[in-house]
Amino acid sequence: MKKLWKISLCLITAIFLLCGCGNSNNTDSVQEATTEASTEIKVDYSDGIDETGHLSDVDAKTIVKLCDYSKIVIPKKEIEPTDDVVDSNLQDLLKDYGVYDEAVKEGDTVNIDYVGKIDGKEFQGGSASGILLEIGSGTFIPGFEEQIIGHVPGEETFDISVTFPKDYSSKEYAGKDAVFTVTLNYILPELTNDFVEENFSEMQGISTVKELTAKVKENIRTNNKNNYIWDYLLANCEVGEIPKKVMDTRLEVSLNLLRQQYSYYMGYGDEEIIDMYQVESMDDVKENLRADTENNVKTYLISGLIADQEGLSADGAAIDKFIGKDNVDEYYDYYGKPYVNAQILISVVSDFIMENAVVK
Questions:
Q1: N or C: which terminal CB in the chain sees fewer CB atoms within 10 Å?
Q2: Distances in Å between the alpha carbon of 43 and those of 30, 133, 186, 267?
């Protein structure tokens, strides 16, 4: 499944934000179905949600007192991105278009994993994953970057032999020989007008680096506005005690998602997760997820109540705007229609509030 960026340059307000993964700018659509249904651990994202996108086991009107959301004032400094943030987002975007069929040359930026060893033993700070490195930048130890030239992504790992400079900042490594086992993941494409024209003109109507940069900046502002609005709503709306059944259901979703992700990305089972959290049981792990899950539930409740008051819904127009009609079946199949509609409903509510918000 394609990344959301390839579907729409309009940053989706809440789609897949509430999966329990935290607030991330690098949003994989269905995480390639959590990479092709990666584990036996199943996550029922839609558990406890009805097809309108509302929580099914609670009436929001009975426990939520909404604040005045009609004209939220947003300080301009809270939403304006720095150049570094814009550049980082552009780099994240380019990762979706990594080059896999060319040999590395001088000046390329590559994504690599590496494990460093001295005298056959791994050393502290000598290993990393997903590192971007411009070949010829002199960022790494002399001789490291040059030995990547000529390699092609996807080939077997290869070793790079280097010697730490005698004046190296860490004296324990200074002057020592080291071997780095490197995995070349991909080559980052160069951001040029031709690249933008080829990849964004047809669907997005964007054909230059300048236009793409402006769109990215606009998306970041929108995302920052959204974050500010939900921080405001969660801080100012009064939410009473959430029914135990609702919390138990959504906590189970959060826990299973955590288990699935750690199983796939790190090969961890429950015992390893327990050790990592330094607790006694998976019930204790679940308690660590309670605060974030509670905020997620409050978001469902607040958005559902505002939607009801304002006559908003996850209708066809909203689906087309936030996902696209051609993609909705994929999302429904993986996440379930109730969960997807809940995220769309949050997005619809966010748009409604943002239209009336005042930036100063």
A1: C
A2: 12, 36, 31, 17
- Angle value at C-alpha 182, between 179 and 186, nearest 5 degrees: 160
Q: Two tokens at 30? A: 């269905």
Burial-class residue 125 by CB neighbours within 10 Å (0-12, 13-18, 19+): exposed
Is-contact 342 54, C-beta < 8 A?
yes
CA distance 355 to 314: 17
- Helix intervals (H) in the chain: 4-7, 31-37, 60-63, 83-95, 193-204, 209-236, 244-266, 270-277, 282-288, 290-310, 316-322, 328-335, 337-356
Helix axes 209-236, 193-204, angle to 10 degrees: 60
pTM here is: 0.74
